[in-house]
C-alpha cells in the first residue's frame, strides 16, 4: 500500500527510464558500437561525476532551495587535489580525498549559514558563492596548470580502475546514491526535508528544526561536490582554475529532468541520477551518431526539452486518471502552481 | 506591506548610496575614471545587460525565470550575420531579428504556460537549443562589415551618454510605468505572489506570462542588434554566459527570486553598480579573480543587508516569524 | 474548594505588532480536565493568544506558566515538548506528502535501522480517522483536500500527540454538524482523561454545548472569565461585542425577478454530475451538503476556475464559455472562494491592492491607476464592512482571519456583480460581523442581486435562504423552499436518505 | 531602399603611413607595455607573457598582464578601453575576435598607443604589427606530414580542434585539407573535424566519440594544447593506445608522460615565451620610432636577434620545435 506521491514519483522516474532506453536503442540501431560493453563503461564513467552532483543537488532542491555553487566547489576541490598530489609526492590518496571532502563541506557550511540563518534565497546566496569560490580558485591557481604527469599514476588509475569489470567512479556514485536515496525515503530527517520543501512555514509549526536541516543539506551537498572534485582530478588529469565552469546548470537540469521539482517537496535521488544518466547518454550518443559537431548543441537542447515534456505529459496523465478514480479534487491551477518555480 | 515597502525602499536606498559611494571613491582614487570617454565606455559596457534586465525583472516578479536570453542574443546575432551576407537591407534585417527574438520567447512561454513546465528547466533547455541553432546558422564564420552609419550609432553617444543606453533608458521608463502604475503591472505583482488567487480574481495568468516571455525574447534580440553593431561582429558565440550577469543584476536590484517583489529602478541601479565597480576595478588593475569575488560578495550582501536588519528587528520584538517566508511560492 | 495549579497559564501577557496591540494584560488559566472556551470578535486577539501558548510568538510582557513554573518557549518545538498541541486557525499541511505523514511528521513510527514504517503509520492514521468518523485515505496526498478535510487532518494531527494541553483555534469553522459532534465526543474523552483543552469558535451554541468556562477578549484586552452555566448567549455576545447584538438573520423577503443564473446538467468527471438549477434576481439560494459533497467544485466550475465536462451555464440568458473566469466576471459573476488564503487573497499585498485587484479596469484613468482612487475604493468598502485594520497599506496577511474574509467580500462586492456566489461567506467570522454580512447579503438581494450561498452552517442556511439546494456525493438530492425547510429535511437529503427529502 | 552589404566598402587601414621609421633611434626607457591575452590564467599565455615581461624589464620598461577570465569574443574590448584610459604606450594583444576588437583598437591607436598582436591577429587596420608564431601554412601542412609519416600515408584521420570559431585553428585546418589534396595522401581521408572547445572534458568525450563512430580511425591531429593532452589521456587509458597515432600542438610538460609511455610519437609547438618576448620588443621598437610597421623594416629583438617585418606588418617567430622522446626532457614549459 504505497501513497499517490510515491506512485506519481515512480511514474515520473519511469518516464526518464523510458526515454533513456529509447535513446540507447535508437542510437544502437545506427551504430551497434554504442551498445558495446566498452561504450557503456565510458557512459557510466562520464555520468559518474555529474550524477554525483545531481544526487546532492536533489537533496537541496527537495527543500525548495538550489545550490549553484557546486561547479565552483568541484573546480576548487579538483585543483586542490591536483596541487596536493603534485607538490607532496607520497601523500596517501585517502588523505587527499578526505581533505577535498572537508573543503567542500566547509563551503557547504558557508552556503548553509547564508540560506538557513541569514535567510538569503538560495539562488542568490549560491550564485554569489559561485563567483566567490571561483575567484578563490583563480587566485589559488594563478595560471598554474597541474598535468597528469605531475600526479602519481596510482591516483590517476582511480579514473580507469575497475572492480569486477565495473569502473570505480560509477561505483562510488552508486554507493552515495544508495545512501542518499535510502536516507531521503526512510529517515525521519529525510522526510523532514520533503516537509520543508513542501511548506516551509508549516514545517516550523510542526517543530521541524528547519535551519539545522537546511544547514546539514548544504554541508552534505558541499561534501559531495568536494568528492566529485577528487574524482574529476582522477579522471581528467589536466587541472586548472577553470575546471567544471558552467556545470551547475547541467546539474540542475539533470535533477529537474529526473523529476525533482524546483518548487520543492517532490522527487528522489534516484530520479536525479537517472536524469544525469540520460543527459550524458544524449551527448555521448550525439558524438557517436556522427552528428555535425555544430548541430550537437541544438540537438542536445532539443532532447533535454523532449525529456522534460515527456515527463510532464506522463505526470498529467496520471493526475487525470487519479481525478477520475478517487474523486481527487486538486484545483486546475493547483498542479501548475506547484510547478511554478520557487 | 509597510514593512515590505520600507524594506524595499531601504534596499533601493542602500543601492543608490552604494552606487554614488563607489562612484565618488573611484572618481577620487582611480586615475582615468573621471574622463567623460570613460563614463561612456562604462555605460556602453552594460547596455546589453540593461536591455535584457528590463523584461527579466518582470519575468522574475511573476515567479518565473528566463535563462535563454543570452542564447537568444547569440542566435539573433548569427541570423543578422547570415542575412547580411545574403545581401538583405540592414533595416529589414533588424525587423526580422526582432521577430526571431519574439519567436524564441514565444517557444519558452508556450512551454511554460501551456504545458506548465518549470521555466528554469525549460529555459536551460532552450539555452542550449538557441545557442546550437546559432552555430547551425552561422557555423564558425564571423560577419564583420556592417554599415558604418549603424555601427557608428551603436558606439556613438549624446554627450557622455551612449545611444544604446539612451534607448535602454527610454524603454526602462516605459516598462517602469507599466509595471508600477497600470492594471497590467498590478496583475504581474499579484500573480507573482499568489498565482491561484490571481487566477480566481480573473487575471489572465497564462496570457500575462506568455507576453512577458515574448517581451524577454524581443529585448534579447534588441540587445543582439546593439551587440552586433557595437562590436561590428556577428558570431554564433556572441554573449555566451551573459545570462548569469543579467540574473545577478536583477537579483542585486532587489527582485525576489520567488516572485512578487521587486522594482525596475532598483534593478537599473543594480546594473549601474555592477558597471561602475567593474570599470573602476579594471582601471585600478585589480586582477580578474577579485572581480569575480566582488560580484559574488555584492550579490550576497544585496540580500544579507536587509535581512540582517529584519532579523535584528525581530530579535527586538521577539517574534518568531516563520523563516523562509521568501520560500513560499504562489 | 482549593483550586489545583493550572497546567498552563498566561499572567498579564501583552503582545503588539508594530502599532497593533493584539494582546494587553491578558490572564488565562487552563486546568487539567477542563474544556475552556475563548471568545471574542474578529481581531480580538484569540489566535495571537494561541500562538503565544504555542511558542510562535514570545510575549512582549507578562509570563507563561507551565504547572506553575514560568517557561519561555523558544519555538513551536519547545511548546510541543512541553506537551502543548495546537490546531491553528489556518491549516498548515504539506501538500506533497501523504495525509498520514502530515499527521506524524517528525514522529513517524520507525522499524529496523530507523527505517520508518509506512504501514504502521497509515494504520495509525486510519485509526484516528475512524475515531473522528471521517473517510480519508491516509496514503493519499494532502494536496487537493478541501478546507474541511484539511481541518480534519489538523485535528487528527493534534490529538495524535496525546498532549496534556490541546488548543483548538476555530477547528469547527469548516465542519458540518456530524463532524462537529464527533469532534466534541473526542474532546470530551480527552478531557475526562485529564487533558486540558482550549476551544475557540464563533458559533456560540458550540461553546455552550462543549465548554465549562469561557474567557472573553475584546480588542486584545481581557474582559472576563466565567462559568458558561451562569451565562446566556446574549450575555456572552454582550461581553464580546460590548453592545446589544442586532438580529443575526435579517432576511428581507423579496419578490424573485427573472432568472439571472441558469445551470443545466452541469457535470465534471468524478466530481459532480447532472447539476441543474436556477437563481433568480433578488433570490438567495443556499447550497447545502456534507463536507466533500462537491459544492465548492460546482461553484468553481460555474465561475470558470475549473472546466466542466458537460452541461451549460448562462447568466441572464447568455451562455458562458467553459473555464474562463474573465468572461464569467464580464458577464457579471462573482465568486467569494472557500479558501481565502490560497484563493481569495494575495496575503503579501496590501489591503487596498487586494480590494482593487478585481476592479482595476474600472479604476483606470488612461493607462494608469490613480493611487488615490484605489485607496478611496478600499476605504469605502472597509468602512461598509467595518474592517479592523491599522493602515490600508498593510499586508492583508496581518489581518485577523475574519477581517481577511471581509476584505475578500469587499473585493467582490466592489465589482457590482449581477450574480454573487459565496462559498462559506461567514466561515471564521464573529457573530457581530456575521450579522453585518447577512444584512449586506439580504440588502444586495433586495436590490436585485442573485445570490448563491454555499454554507456548512445550517442555521445560516435556514435563516438566510429563499430556497435550499442540497448536494450529496456530487448530485443534487433535494430542493427545499424556505417555507418547509427544516434541519431534519436538509440533513436527510445531505446524507442521501432520499425519501425524507420528498 | 536601405543599406545592403554591397553599399559598404571596408575602409582603408588607418596605419599612420605619415610617420617614418628611424632604425637608429634608441629603445626608449620606462615604456608602459600591457599584455592582453585571450584569457588570463591560461597556462599558454602565462608563459608567453612571462617571456614578454622578461623582455620589457630588459629594456627598462614596465609591463603588466590584464585580461578577461573567459575567452569570449568581446570581453577584451572593455580592457582595451581601460588601457586606453590609462594611456599605455603599447598594447600587446591576442585577439579573441579579429573584428570585435578593431573599433576599440582604432580608438587606442588614435590616442597614440602602439598596438602589437600576437598568437592571434586582429584585422590589419586595428594593429601596427602582428607577431606570427609560425606561418599558418607551415603549421597546417607539417602537421599532416608528421602524421602521414607515422601511418605511412594510409587510413582515416580526424581533427580535434578548439572552438568552432577559433581563427587560428580554422586557418590551419584549411591548409591541412589543402595539403591532403596532394596525390601522396590519396589513401588518407579526413573523416571529421570535432570541437573540444578548449575544454578538457569536452575534448576527452569528443575523442571517445571519434573512436566509437570510426572504429577504423588511424590518426588524430589536435592543433590545440588543451585538445591534444585530453586526447592523449584518453588514448593512453584505452585499447587504442599505440594503435591510433596522435599529433598536434602541445606543451612538453603536458605531453611528457604520453610521449614516454608511447601514446604520442611527435608533436610540435613554438616556444610561447619567445613569442611574448618578440612581441614586447616589437612594441618597444614601435613606441621608440625604430619601426612603423611597414614591410621591410628591421629591428633587433634581444636574444632573438634581428627580425624583419614581412608583408602587411607580419613578423615571423620562426619554425616550430618538434618534440619527441629524445629532446622533450630538455624543455620545461
Ligand atoms: N503577524 C502579525 N503582524 C501584525 N499584526 C498581526 C499579526 N497577527 C495578528 N495581528 C493583529 O492582531 C490582532 C489580533 O489578531 P488575531 O488573529 O489574534 O485575532 P482573532 O481573535 O484570532 O480574530 P479571528 O477570530 O478573526 O481569528 C488583529 O488586529 C491582527 O490584525
Ligand atoms: N470520497 C472521497 N474521497 C476522497 N476525497 C474526498 C471524498 N469526498 C470528499 N473528499 C474531499 O472533499 C473535497 C470536496 O470538498 P468540496 O469543498 O468540493 O465539497 P464541499 O461540499 O464544498 O465541502 P466544503 O463544505 O468543504 O466546501 C475534495 O477536495 C476531496 O479532497
Ligand atoms: Mg483567529
Ligand atoms: Mg467547499
Automatic annotation (TrEMBL), chain A:
InterPro entries: ABC_transp_permease (IPR001851). The keyword Cell membrane applies. It is a multi-pass membrane protein. It is found in: Cell membrane. It comes from the Bacteria. The keyword Transmembrane applies. Keywords: Cell inner membrane, Cell membrane, Membrane, Transmembrane, Transmembrane helix, Transport. Part of the ABC transporter complex LsrABCD involved in autoinducer 2 (AI-2) import. Probably responsible for the translocation of the substrate across the membrane. The complex is composed of two ATP-binding proteins (LsrA), two transmembrane proteins (LsrC and LsrD) and a solute-binding protein (LsrB). This is Autoinducer 2 import system permease protein LsrC. The lineage of its organism: Bacteria, Bacillati, Actinomycetota, Actinomycetes, Streptosporangiales.
TrEMBL record, chain B:
Keywords: Cell inner membrane, Cell membrane, Membrane, Transmembrane, Transmembrane helix, Transport. The keyword Kinase does not apply. The keyword Nucleotidyltransferase does not apply. It is found in: Cell membrane. InterPro entries: ABC_transp_permease. It comes from the Bacteria. It is a multi-pass membrane protein. It holds the Pfam family BPD_transp_2. Its main location: membrane. CDD domains: TM_PBP1_transp_AraH_like. The chain crosses the membrane at residues 92-112, 165-189, 210-229, 241-259, 290-312. This is Autoinducer 2 import system permease protein LsrD. It comes from Actinocorallia longicatena.
Automatic annotation (TrEMBL), chain C:
GO terms for molecular function: ATP binding. Residues 8-498 form the ABC transporter domain. Keywords: ATP-binding, Cell membrane, Membrane, Nucleotide-binding, Repeat, Sugar transport, Translocase, Transport. Gene3D superfamilies: P-loop containing nucleotide triphosphate hydrolases (3.40.50.300). It comes from the Bacteria. This is Sugar ABC transporter ATP-binding protein. SUPFAM superfamilies: P-loop containing nucleoside triphosphate hydrolases. It comes from Actinocorallia longicatena.
Amino acid at each position: 500500500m504505497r501513497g499517490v506521491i510515491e506512485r506519481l514519483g515512480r511514474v515520473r522516474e519511469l518516464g526518464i527510464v523510458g526515454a533513456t532506453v529509447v535513446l540507447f536503442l535508437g542510437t544502437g540501431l545506427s551504430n551497434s558500437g554504442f551498445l558495446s560493453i566498452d561504450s557503456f563503461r565510458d557512459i557510466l564513467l562520464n555520468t559518474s561525476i555529474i550524477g554525483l552532483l545531481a544526487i546532492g543537488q536533489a537533496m537541496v532542491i527537495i527543500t525548495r532551495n538550489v545550490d549553484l555553487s557546486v561547479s565552483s566547489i568541484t573546480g576548487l576541490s579538483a585543483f586542490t587535489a591536483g596541487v596536493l598530489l603534485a607538490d607532496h609526492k607520497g601523500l596517501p590518496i585517502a588523505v587527499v580525498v578526505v581533505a577535498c571532502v572537508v573543503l567542500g563541506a566547509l563551503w557547504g557550511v558557508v552556503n548553509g549559514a547564508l540560506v538557513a540563518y541569514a535567510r538569503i534565497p538560495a539562488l542568490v546566496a549560491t550564485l554569489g558563492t559561485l563567483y566567490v569560490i571561483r575567484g578563490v580558485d583563480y587566485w589559488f591557481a594563478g595560471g598554474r596548470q597541474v598535468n597528469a604527469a605531475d600526479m602519481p599514476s596510482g591516483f590517476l588509475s582511480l579514473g580507469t580502475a575497475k572492480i569486477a569489470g565495473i569502473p570505480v567512479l560509477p561505483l562510488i556514485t552508486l554507493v552515495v546514491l544508495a545512501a542518499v536515496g535510502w536516507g531521503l525515503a526512510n529517515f525521519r530527517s529525510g522526510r523532514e526535508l520533503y516537509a520543508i520543501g513542501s511548506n516551509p512555514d508549516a514545517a516550523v509549526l510542526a517543530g521541524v528544526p528547519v535551519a539545522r536541516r537546511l544547514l546539514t543539506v548544504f554541508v552534505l551537498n558541499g561534501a559531495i561536490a568536494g568528492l566529485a572534485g577528487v574524482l574529476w582530478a582522477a579522471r581528467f588529469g589536466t587541472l586548472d582554475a577553470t575546471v567544471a565552469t558552467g556545470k551547475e546548470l547541467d546539474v540542475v537540469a539533470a535533477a529537474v529532468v529526473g523529476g525533482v521539482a524546483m518548487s520543492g517537496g517532490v522527487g528522489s535521488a534516484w530520479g536525479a541520477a537517472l536524469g544525469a544518466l540520460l543527459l550524458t547518454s544524449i551527448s555521448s550518443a550525439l558524438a557517436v551518431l556522427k552528428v555535425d559537431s555544430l548541430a550537437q548543441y541544438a540537438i542536445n537542447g532539443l532532447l533535454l526539452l523532449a525529456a522534460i515534456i515527456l515527463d510532464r505529459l506522463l505526470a498529467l496523465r496520471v493526475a487525470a486518471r487519479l481525478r477520475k478514480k478517487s474523486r481527487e479534487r486538486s484545483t486546475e491551477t493547483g498542479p501548475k502552481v506547484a510547478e511554478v518555480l520557487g | 506591506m509597510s514593512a515590505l515597502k520600507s524594506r524595499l525602499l531601504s534596499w533601493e536606498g542602500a543601492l543608490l548610496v552604494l552606487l554614488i559611494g563607489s562612484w565618488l571613491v573611484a572618481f577620487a582614487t582611480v586615475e582615468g575614471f573621471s574622463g567623460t570617454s570613460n563614463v561612456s565606455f562604462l555605460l556602453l559596457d552594460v547596455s546589453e545587460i540593461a536591455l535584457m534586465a528590463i523584461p527579466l525583472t518582470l519575468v522574475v516578479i511573476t515567479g518565473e525565470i528566463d535563462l535563454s536570453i543570452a542564447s537568444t542574443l547569440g542566435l539573433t546575432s548569427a541570423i543578422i550575420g547570415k542575412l547580411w551576407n545574403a545581401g538583405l537591407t540592414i533595416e529589414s534585417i533588424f525587423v526580422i531579428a526582432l521577430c526571431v527574438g519574439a519567436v524564441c520567447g514565444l517557444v519558452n512561454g508556450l512551454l511554460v504556460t501551456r504545458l506548465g513546465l518549470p521555466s528554469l528547466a525549460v529555459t536551460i533547455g532552450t539555452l542550449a537549443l538557441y545557442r546550437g541553432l546559432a552555430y547551425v546558422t552561422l557555423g564558425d564564420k564571423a560577419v564583420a562589415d556592417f554599415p558604418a552609419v549603424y555601427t557608428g550609432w551603436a558606439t556613438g553617444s549624446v554627450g557622455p551618454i551612449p545611444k544604446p543606453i539612451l534607448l535602454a533608458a527610454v524603454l526602462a521608463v516605459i516598462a517602469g510605468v507599466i509595471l508600477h502604475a497600470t492594471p497590467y503591472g498590478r496583475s504581474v505583482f499579484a500573480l507573482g505572489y499568489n498565482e491561484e488567487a490571481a487566477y480566481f480574481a480573473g487575471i489572465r495568468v497564462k496570457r500575462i506570462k506568455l507576453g512577458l516571455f515574448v517581451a524577454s525574447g524581443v529585448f534579447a534580440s534588441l540587445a543582439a542588434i546593439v551587440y552586433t553593431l557595437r562590436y561590428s561582429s556577428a558570431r554564433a558565440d556572441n554573449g555566451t554566459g551573459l545570462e548569469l550577469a543579467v540574473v545577478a543584476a536583477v537579483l542585486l536590484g532587489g527582485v525576489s527570486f520567488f516572485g512578487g517583489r521587486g522594482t525596475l529602478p532598483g534593478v537599473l541601479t543594480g546594473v549601474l553598480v555592477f558597471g561602475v565597480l567593474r570599470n573602476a576595478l579594471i582601471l585600478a588593475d585589480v586582477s580578474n579573480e577579485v572581480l569575480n569575488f566582488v560580484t559574488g560578495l555584492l550579490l550576497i550582501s544585496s540580500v544579507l543587508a536587509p535581512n540582517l536588519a529584519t532579523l535584528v528587528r525581530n530579535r527586538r520584538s521577539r517574534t518568531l516569524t516563520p523563516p523562509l517566508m521568501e520560500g513560499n511560492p504562489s | 474548594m482549593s483550586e489545583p495549579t493550572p497546567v498552563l497559564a498566561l499572567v498579564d501577557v501583552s503582545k503588539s505588532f508594530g502599532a497593533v496591540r493584539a494582546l494587553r494584560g491578558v490572564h488565562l488559566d487552563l486546568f487539567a480536565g477542563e474544556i475552556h472556551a475563548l471568545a471574542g470578535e474578529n481581531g480580538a486577539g484569540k489566535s495571537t493568544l494561541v500562538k503565544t501558548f504555542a511558542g510562535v510568538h514570545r510575549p512582549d510582557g507578562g509570563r507563561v506558566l507551565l504547572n506553575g513554573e514560568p517557561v519561555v518557549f523558544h519555538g513551536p518545538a519547545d511548546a510541543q515538548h512541553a506537551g502543548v498541541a495546537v490546531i491553528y486557525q489556518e491549516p498548515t499541511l504539506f501538500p506533497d506528502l501523504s495525509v498520514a505523514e502530515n499527521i506524524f511528521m517528525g514522529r513517524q513510527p520507525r522499524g529496523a535501522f530507523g527505517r520508518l514504517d509506512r504501514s504502521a503509520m497509515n494504520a495509525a492514521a486510519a485509526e484516528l480517522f475512524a475515531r473522528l468518523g471521517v473517510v480519508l485515505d491516509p496514503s493519499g496526498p494532502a494536496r487537493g483536500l478541501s478546507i474541511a478535510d484539511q481541518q480534519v487532518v489538523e485535528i487528527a494531527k493534534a490529538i495524535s500527540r496525546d498532549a496534556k494541553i490541546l488548543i483548538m483555534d476555530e477547528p469547527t469553522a469548516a465542519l458540518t454538524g456530524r463532524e462537529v459532534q464527533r469532534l466534541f465526543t473526542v474532546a470530551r474523552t480527552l478531557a475526562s482523561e485529564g487533558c486540558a483543552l482550549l476551544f475557540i469558535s464563533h458559533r456560540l451554541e458550540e461553546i455552550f454545548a462543549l465548554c465549562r468556562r469561557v474567557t472573553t477578549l475584546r480588542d486584545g484586552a481581557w474582559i472576563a472569565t466565567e462559568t458558561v452555566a451562569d451565562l446566556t448567549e446574549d450575555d456572552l455576545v454582550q461581553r464580546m461585542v460590548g453592545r446589544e447584538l442586532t438580529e443575526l438573520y435579517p432576511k428581507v423577503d423579496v419578490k424573485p425577478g427573472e432568472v439571472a443564473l441558469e445551470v443545466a446538467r452541469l457535470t465534471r468527471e468524478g466530481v459532480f454530475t447532472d447539476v441543474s438549477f436556477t437563481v433568480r434576481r433578488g433570490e438567495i439560494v443556499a447550497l447545502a451538503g456534507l463536507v466533500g459533497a462537491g459544492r465548492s467544485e460546482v461553484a468553481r466550475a460555474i465561475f470558470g476556475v475549473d472546466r466542466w465536462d458537460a452541461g451549460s451555464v448562462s447568466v441572464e440568458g447568455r451562455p458562458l464559455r467553459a473555464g474562463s473566469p474573465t468572461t464569467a466576471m464580464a458577464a457579471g459573476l462573482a465568486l467569494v472562494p472557500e479558501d481565502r488564503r490560497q484563493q481569495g487573497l494575495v496575503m503579501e499585498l496590501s489591503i487596498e491592492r487586494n480590494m482593487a485587484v478585481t476592479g482595476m479596469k474600472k479604476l483606470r484613468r488612461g493607462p494608469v491607476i490613480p493611487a488615490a482612487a484605489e485607496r478611496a475604493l478600499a476605504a469605502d468598502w472597509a468602512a461598509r464592512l467595518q474592517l479592523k485594520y491599522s493602515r490600508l497599506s498593510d499586508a492583508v496577511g496581518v489581518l485577523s482571519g475574519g477581517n481577511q474574509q471581509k476584505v475578500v467580500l469587499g473585493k467582490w462586492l466592489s465589482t457590482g456583480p449581477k450574480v454573487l456566489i459565496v462559498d462559506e461567506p461567514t466561515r471564521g467570522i464573529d457573530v457581530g460581523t456575521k450579522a453585518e454580512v447577512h444584512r449586506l447579503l439580504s440588502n444586495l438581494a433586495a436590490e436585485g442581486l442573485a445570490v448563491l450561498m454555499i454554507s456548512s452552517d445550517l442555521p445560516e442556511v435556514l435563516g438566510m435562504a429563499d430556497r435550499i439546494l442540497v448536494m450529496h456525493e456530487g448530485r443534487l438530492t433535494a430542493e427545499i423552499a424556505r417555507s418547509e425547510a427544516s434541519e431534519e429535511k436538509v440533513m436527510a437529503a445531505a446524507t442521501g436518505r432520499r425519501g425524507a427529502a420528498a | 531602399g536601405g543599406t545592403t552589404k554591397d553599399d559598404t566598402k571596408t575602409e582603408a587601414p588607418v596605419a599612420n603611413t605619415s610617420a617614418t621609421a628611424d632604425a637608429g633611434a634608441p629603445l626608449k626607457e620606462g615604456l608602459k607595455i600591457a599584455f592582453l591575452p585571450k584569457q588570463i590564467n591560461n597556462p599558454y599565455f602565462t608563459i608567453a607573457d612571462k617571456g614578454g615581461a622578461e623582455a620589457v624589464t630588459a629594456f627598462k620598461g614596465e609591463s603588466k598582464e590584464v585580461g578577461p577570465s573567459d575567452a569570449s569574443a568581446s570581453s577584451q574590448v572593455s580592457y582595451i578601453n581601460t588601457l586606453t584610459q590609462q594611456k599605455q604606450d603599447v598594447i600587446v594583444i591576442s585577439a579573441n575576435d579579429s573584428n570585435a576588437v578593431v573599433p576599440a583598437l582604432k580608438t587606442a591607436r588614435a590616442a597614440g598607443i602602439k598596438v602589437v598582436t600576437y598568437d592571434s591577429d586582429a584585422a590589419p587596420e586595428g594593429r601596427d604589427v602582428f607577431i606570427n608564431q609560425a606561418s599558418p601554412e607551415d603549421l597546417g601542412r607539417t602537421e599532416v606530414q608528421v602524421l602521414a609519416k607515422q601511418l605511412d600515408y594510409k587510413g582515416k584521420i580526424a581533427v580535434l580542434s578548439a572552438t568552432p570559431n577559433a581563427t587560428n585553428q580554422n586557418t590551419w585546418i584549411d591548409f591541412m585539407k589543402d595539403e591532403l589534396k596532394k596525390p601522396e595522401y590519396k589513401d588518407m581521408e579526413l573523416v571529421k573535424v570535432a570541437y573540444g572547445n578548449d575544454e578538457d572534458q569536452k575534448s576527452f568525450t569528443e575523442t571517445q566519440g571519434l573512436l566509437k563512430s570510426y572504429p577504423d580511425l588511424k590518426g588524430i591531429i589536435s592543433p590545440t594544447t588543451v585538445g591534444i593532452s585530453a586526447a592523449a589521456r584518453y588514448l593512453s587509458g584505452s585499447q587504442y593506445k599505440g594503435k591510433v597515432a596522435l599529433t598536434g600542438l602541445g606543451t612538453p610538460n603536458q605531453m611528457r608522460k604520453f610521449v614516454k609511455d608511447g601514446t604520442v610519437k611527435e608533436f610540435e609547438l613554438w616556444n610561447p615565451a619567445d613569442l611574448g618576448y618578440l612581441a614586447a620588443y616589437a612594441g618597444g621598437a614601435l613606441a621608440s620610432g625604430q619601426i612603423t610597421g611597414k614591410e621591410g623594416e628591421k629591428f633587433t629583438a634581444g636574444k632573438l636577434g634581428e627580425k624583419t617585418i614581412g608583408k602587411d606588418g607580419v613578423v615571423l617567430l620562426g619554425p616550430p620545435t618538434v618534440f619527441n622522446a629524445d629532446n622533450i626532457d630538455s624543455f620545461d614549459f
